[in-house]
Specification:
Layout lengths: L1 H8 L26 E2 L3 H6 L7 H5 L3 E6 L6 H12 L2 H6 L4 E6 L3 H11 L4 E5 L4 H5 L3 E3 L9 E3 L2 E6 L2 E7 L11 H7 L1
Parallel strand pairs: 2-3, 3-4
Antiparallel strand pairs: 1-4, 2-7, 5-6, 7-8
Length: about 190
């Protein structure tokens, strides 16, 4: 009761501004573990479980990055990935080197999902230890959405040129797909 009263008494101006991935942010300056490319266990074992560094992914390149709460989930599978898959050629015509889908999953799950989605031209990566998602302050507790226990990524899309975030669109909730779809990002390029 006291906590509720204090919450009500707090002036609106004391609400912290939204933190998270934003235009102008240099992703090459983040301290994170490598992202894991989607692949089978055998392929990962063969390459020594090597990841892809942010420098490898972004330095000197133009990359479309879209992140989502998880593989094999409703909006992600039925809306978000298809919205980019159908526009891969258009992104390439705008000088994009790679279209990347990122989720907090393991790389083997992401590999299975990529195969199930049958998409062409999208690279699937796992933020298996959540370090990238935490570094860009886009973590979200999706336990109530049956995606937990644990942390998931918020849904967003951005273009990253030489490590610097350009146009960037972040959804308000995990089930939303109003601003982070492929068509919206393509228009912003």
């Amino acid at each position: 009761m006291l906590r509720t009263a204090l919450r009500r008494a707090r002036p609106a101006s004391s609400v912290a501004p939204r933190r998270g991935i934003a235009s102008g942010q240099n992703l090459l300056q983040l301290s994170t573990s490598d992202l894991q490319p989607a692949r089978t266990w055998d392929a990962a074992e063969a390459d020594g479980f090597a990841g892809t560094s942010l420098q490898q992914l972004f330095q000197g390149r133009k990359v479309v990055l879209f992140a989502l709460p998880g593989a094999f989930t409703g909006v992600c599978e039925k809306g978000h990935v298809p919205s980019f898959a159908k526009l891969v050629n258009e992104f390439q015509q705008k000088g994009v080197d790679e279209v990347v889908c990122l989720a907090i999953n393991d790389p083997y799950c992401m590999n299975g999902w990529a195969k199930a989605m049958q998409t062409k031209g999208i690279s699937f990566y796992a933020d298996a230890d959540e370090s990238f998602t935490r570094a860009v302050s886009e973590t979200r507790d999706c336990t109530a959405d049956a995606l937990g226990p644990g942390v998931r990524s918020n849904r967003y899309a951005c273009v990253v040129e030489d490590g610097v975030v350009g146009a960037c669109f972040v959804e308000a909730g995990p089930g939303d797909l109003t601003v982070s779809d492929g068509a919206t990002l393509l228009k912003a390029l």
